[in-house]
Design a protein that fits this description.
CATH superfamily of the largest domain: Periplasmic binding protein-like II
CATH topology of the largest domain: D-Maltodextrin-Binding Protein, domain 2
Mean pLDDT: 87
Number of helices: 11
Strand content: 15-25%
Structural class: alpha/beta
CATH class of the largest domain: Alpha Beta
Order of helices and strands: HHHEEHEHEHEEEHEEHEHEHEEH
Low-confidence stretches: none
C-alpha cells in the first residue's frame, strides 16, 4: 500500500479517538456522528492492515500498533494544525473547546468568571483538576489531552514554556463565633488551637509548611483533608483554625461566616504560572486562551 493513499482526515480522526479513548467523545469534539467515526476507523484499519483499538471495559483501548502510529504522526499533525491556525487566525465565531488543567483554588476563582463572560462566542473553556504528579502532567500536555495547565510549581521541562499568571498568598481562617479568636491572631493562639490541615499530595507537604519561610512547629491536628472546600466547611462548624489561600478565603468568608487573618509568620507568595508545550506558544488559539484567562484577573482588579 502506498502512503499517498492515506487521507490525512482519517489520521486526524484516529488521533482524536486515541487521545480521548472514546468514539463517543471524539465524535462530539469533531462534530461528527458516532457511526461516522466508527466507519473512519474501520476504513483506516483496512488500509493499514492492523487493528487499532480493542474493547476495554465500557470503553476502548489502543493496540500497540495504534500507540506506535500515534507516536509517529501526532507531532506532524500538530505542526500542520498550528500552521493552518497561523494562516487563518483564531476566531470565537468558530466552535472550539479548550481544556485547562488547574488547581482547586484557581478552579474556584475561574469558573464564575468564565460563566459570566459574554464574549466567548462559540468557545468553551473546560476546567479539569491538575494531575497528581509532574510526570503525568507533562505527559498529558505532550499528548494534547489539555491545551495548558495553571500551577504554582515552576516546571523546567525543555519542551515546555511558562508565563506568569497570578499571585496569591496564604492566610488563617476561623469561624466568626470563635470563643477565643476575634479580630487578631497571634502566633501563640495559632499553636494553642486545634487545626484542620490541608496536605498538598503532589508535593507531600502541608500548605502552611510549603509557603512559609520559617519551619512551622508541631500543631494539634483535629482533621486532615485534601480539599479547600472541605477545609472551610469544617472550620465554619468547629473551633479549629486552618491555613488557607487568601483569594478563596475572601471569596467564601461571608457565605461561611469565617474570619480571615494575616499569618503570624513570614509567608512565601503563591505564584501561579501558565504551562504549555512549545508547539503551542505561537498558536493563535492558544495565545487567545492565555490572554483570555489573564484578562479575568485584570478585570477583577478594576474598581
Amino acid at each position: 500500500m502506498s502512503e499517498n493513499n492515506i487521507d490525512l482526515n482519517l489520521l486526524k480522526i484516529f488521533i482524536t479517538v486515541y487521545q480521548h479513548r472514546s468514539i463517543t467523545v471524539a465524535a462530539e469534539v469533531l462534530g461528527l456522528t458516532q457511526p461516522g467515526v466508527s466507519g473512519v476507523l474501520k476504513r483506516l484499519q483496512q488500509q493499514l492492515g492492523v487493528q487499532l483499538f480493542v474493547r476495554s471495559g465500557r470503553g476502548i483501548a489502543p493496540t500497540h500498533q495504534a500507540q506506535e502510529l500515534a507516536r509517529q504522526i501526532e507531532p506532524a499533525l500538530s505542526q500542520i494544525n498550528n500552521a493552518l491556525e497561523g494562516i487563518e487566525t483564531f476566531s470565537t465565531e468558530n466552535s472550539r473547546r479548550f481544556v485547562v488543567y488547574t488547581t482547586e483554588p484557581m478552579m474556584l476563582m475561574l469558573l464564575p468568571m468564565i460563566e459570566a463572560d459574554q464574549t466567548l462566542g462559540k468557545v468553551e473553556i473546560e476546567l479539569h483538576p491538575t494531575l497528581s504528579n509532574e510526570e503525568k502532567l507533562i505527559h498529558s500536555l505532550n499528548q494534547q489531552q489539555a491545551d495548558l495547565a495553571i500551577d504554582f510549581a515552576n516546571y523546567s521541562a525543555p519542551s515546555f514554556f511558562s508565563e506568569f499568571f497570578y499571585t496569591d498568598e496564604i492566610c488563617i481562617i476561623a469561624r466568626k463565633g470563635h470563643p477565643r479568636i476575634k479580630q487578631t491572631l497571634t502566633l501563640e493562639q495559632f499553636y494553642a488551637e486545634k487545626h484542620v490541615t490541608l496536605k498538598l499530595r503532589r508535593e507531600d507537604a502541608y500548605l502552611a509548611d510549603y509557603f512559609t519561610e520559617e519551619v512551622i512547629g508541631e500543631r494539634r491536628v483535629a482533621a486532615e483533608c485534601d480539599s479547600l472546600v472541605s477545609q472551610m466547611t469544617m472550620i465554619s462548624n468547629s473551633d479549629c483554625v486552618a491555613v488557607m489561600v487568601r483569594s478563596i478565603a475572601d471569596q467564601f468568608a461571608d457565605k461561611l461566616d469565617l474570619q480571615v487573618f494575616n499569618t503570624p509568620f513570614t509567608q512565601i507568595p503563591v505564584k501561579y504560572r501558565l504551562l504549555a508545550h512549545n508547539r503551542m506558544k505561537h498558536s493563535p488559539a492558544n495565545r487567545w486562551l492565555r490572554e483570555k484567562l489573564k484578562s479575568y484577573f485584570v478585570e477583577s482588579k478594576k474598581p
